[in-house]
Write a structure and sequence with these properties.
There is one protein chain. By secondary structure, this protein is an alpha/beta fold. The chain folds into two domains: about 230 residues, Alpha-Beta Barrel (TIM Barrel), CATH 3.20.20; about 70 residues. About 45% of the residues lie in helices and about 15% in strands. The protein contains 13 helices and ten strands. A ten-stranded parallel beta sheet has the order 3-5-6-7-8-9-10-1-2-4. Helix 1 runs antiparallel to helix 10 and helix 10 runs antiparallel to helix 13.
């Protein structure tokens, strides 16, 4: 199975809905995290990204950030009442401001705290629980120390990104440490990290034959056709790719525009997407340099269409591209 990664600021419900309309191959999306909040109930506005009415087509598993058991139980139950039988606990976020509060990957150095939290919440929530993790925060031994704890609980799956939190997304994947985790983990594992093309996916599939589930994040943003290429469903010509991408990016622009409170927010959001989208094209850097200085919404839209329809842009091979 192919999962869409929870990329904060990118894979929100607008992106998920528009992507699902134009592309295929993703089975399930894990939402960007929703932070725990005080209160007897969680306001629906806080759950906007995962409200059923905002999500169509793509199956979603909401992700929760934080470890206060009482707040976690309330949010899990509210999500269940919205129809979510599965939820995900974020033990993987590498952002220092989050990790320093013992949230995300910053919780991995504390196996006892994780055990106490799971002991408290699991008997009291109706949802299935999965966990997204890294190899650790400070070092690659931390998850290994946590796995005996996780093995003792009925988790739906464990998603592992083979880096430590301190690395953020830099440096090489630590596949040796990941392999050590695979050997002792008793849960279904989803591999997450640097899958940018079919060749790397196939390499990991051969290296870890027990893994059947894969998560795509930055690689998918850099190549929106990646799930189709991994699954080898159909050959799509560059001409057809351009039509699909053009339709997708225009709809993403319009749907984002409908929810933006200011033009500057819309432009910043689209430019952030184009930092990845540009990797699909041979002249991607030139395309992005043209778009990134535009400060007018109408001009941005018109320029995008001119680039896509009036120039001979060429889709590139991503085999050697860095993301």
């Amino acid at each position: 199975m192919l999962y869409l990664a929870p990329l904060q600021g990118y894979t929100n419900y607008i992106f998920r809905n528009v992507y699902h309309k134009h592309f295929n191959g993703i089975d399930i999306a894990i939402s960007p995290f929703v932070s725990l909040v005080d209160g007897k109930r969680v306001k629906l506005s806080h759950l906007k990204d995962v409200l059923p009415e905002n999500n169509s087509g793509m199956k979603v598993i909401p992700q929760i950030l934080g470890y206060n058991p009482e707040q976690f139980i309330i949010m899990a139950r509210d999500l269940y009442n919205l129809g979510y039988e599965s939820i995900n606990w974020n033990l993987g976020c590498p952002v220092s401001g989050i990790a320093q509060k013992k949230r995300g990957s910053g919780m991995l150095p504390y196996p006892q705290l994780i055990e106490e939290t799971l002991n408290e919440i699991l008997p009291k929530i109706p949802n299935k629980l999965s966990i997204k993790s890294r190899l650790g925060y400070f070092n690659n031994k931390e998850l290994l120390n946590v796995l005996p704890v996780l093995n003792s609980f009925p988790l739906e799956f464990l998603n592992i990104h083979p880096r430590i939190g301190k690395q953020m997304y830099k440096g090489e994947l630590d596949l040796e440490a990941f392999s050590s985790c695979v050997k002792i983990c008793e849960h279904r594992i989803i591999f997450s990290g640097d899958i940018i093309d079919y060749y790397f996916y196939n390499k990991m599939k051969n290296k870890f034959p027990s893994i059947n589930d894969w998560m795509l994040g930055r690689g998918l943003l850099s190549n929106l056709f990646l799930p189709n290429e991994i699954l080898q469903k159909e050959n799509i010509s560059d001409e057809e790719k351009l039509k699909i991408f053009s339709s997708f990016v225009n709809e993403l622009f319009e749907e984002t525009k409908n929810t933006s409170t200011a033009d500057v927010h819309l432009l910043n959001k689209m430019k952030e997407y184009w930092k990845y989208f540009k990797n699909m094209f041979d002249e991607g850097d030139e395309i992005f340099n043209t778009l990134k200085f535009i400060q007018d919404v109408e001009k941005f839209s018109n320029t995008t269409n001119e680039i896509l329809f009036e120039t001979n842009i060429v889709f590139s091979s991503l085999n050697s591209k860095k993301i």
